[in-house]
């Protein structure tokens, strides 16, 4: 195995180190338009990513490899009345993951709640500034919304884990069926599963999910906070560069100012419009009376 020395004396290593650093910054950049400040979000993001990685690694230990191989070997030997391989594999994988759903979801809840709270805080601060009120009003109004973030995080974490598990079940079942169709044999299936599980239950997937879920949590908090203070309008704001999605985000920005309850052209009520979306939504028209002014 090639060892890479990540030092300044090694140009290749330095380039790789910078590339990895850039990828992390790009992930955090997706959150910048929503809050205007990634410094507060960085520790939340890091915590969410680490929890996801740790829990996905636990899932990797729960996958019933021996049962999957038994199903596969039976299918290879049978010539008539073959078993439904994909259904059996999906069932045993789903059963193995089901026991960890509650703990997985509970581990995610604090970071998701913190991200949503940050979205609320930033949006209320913006709306307070728009009304020309004292910044203390934002803090005073944000505090009572804490229970909303806890409730949402609990519900969303459960949905998220079930979605992760469903994808894992399907991807593993598909890999086994594909190995059978290509007549790869047990060694070939084993190699395929190792590669697939490395993708499904590794660091890259943890980073992708963390980036998307942070964006969803922050944006959900922003939307709910805006509704709580009576904001009446919103607008989609892109980064204005050549990385902006021309099929989703650019048309949404073209909608201009719309009612807070309306959907943008893409069908989204707020960002993200897609994975790695860097857009934000600005809210306007808060009711000063609801802010205690």
Descriptive account of the structure:
The structure is a single chain. The protein is 66% helix and 4% strand. The protein is mainly α and 293 residues long. Helix 6 crosses helix 8. 35% of the residues are buried. Mean pLDDT is 83; it is low at 1-11 and 30-36.
Straight-line distance between termini: 65 Å
* Coarse shape: elongated
Strand order of the largest sheet: 2-1-3
Total beta strand runs: 3
The low-confidence runs, each spanning 5 or more residues with pLDDT under 50, are 1-11, 30-36
In terms of topology, how is this protein built?
Elements (H helix, E strand, L loop, with lengths): L10 H19 L2 H4 L6 H21 L2 H13 L7 H14 L2 H31 L4 H7 L3 H36 L3 H16 L2 H26 L4 E5 L11 H6 L3 E2 L20 E5 L9
Antiparallel strand pairs: 1-2, 1-3
Helix pairs in contact: 3-6, 3-10, 4-5, 4-9, 5-8, 6-7, 6-8, 6-10, 8-9
Give the tags:
293 residues; mainly alpha; single chain; 3-stranded antiparallel β-sheet; disordered N terminus
Short description:
With 293 residues, the protein is mostly helical. It is built from eleven helices and three strands.
């Amino acid at each position: 195995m090639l060892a890479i020395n990540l030092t300044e004396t090694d140009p290749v290593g330095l380039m790789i180190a910078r590339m990895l650093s850039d990828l992390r910054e790009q992930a955090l950049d997706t959150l910048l338009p929503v809050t205007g400040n990634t410094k507060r979000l960085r520790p939340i993001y890091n915590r969410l990513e680490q929890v996801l990685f740790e829990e996905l690694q636990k899932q990797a230990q729960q996958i019933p490899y021996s049962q999957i191989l038994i199903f596969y070997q039976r299918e290879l030997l049978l010539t008539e009345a073959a078993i439904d391989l994909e259904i059996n594999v999906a069932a045993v994988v789903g059963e193995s993951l089901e026991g960890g759903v509650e703990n997985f979801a509970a581990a995610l809840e604090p970071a998701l709640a913190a991200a949503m709270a940050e979205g609320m805080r930033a949006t209320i601060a913006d709306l307070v500034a728009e009304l020309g009120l004292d910044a203390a009003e934002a803090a005073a109004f944000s505090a009572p919304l804490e229970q909303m973030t806890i409730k949402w995080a609990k519900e969303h974490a459960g949905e998220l884990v079930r979605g992760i598990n469903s994808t894992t079940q399907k991807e593993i079942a598909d890999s086994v069926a594909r190995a059978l169709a290509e007549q790869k044999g047990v060694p070939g299936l084993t190699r395929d599963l190792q590669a697939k599980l490395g993708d499904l239950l590794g660091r890259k997937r943890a980073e992708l999910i963390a980036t998307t879920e942070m964006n969803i949590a922050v944006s959900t908090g922003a939307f709910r906070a805006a509704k709580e203070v009576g904001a009446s309008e919103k607008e989609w704001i892109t980064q204005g560069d050549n990385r902006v999605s021309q099929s989703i985000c650019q048309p949404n920005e073209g909608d201009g100012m719309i009612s807070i309850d309306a959907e943008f052209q893409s069908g989204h009520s707020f960002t993200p419009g897609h994975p790695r979306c860097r857009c934000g939504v600005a809210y306007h028209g808060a009711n000063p009376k609801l802010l205690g002014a």
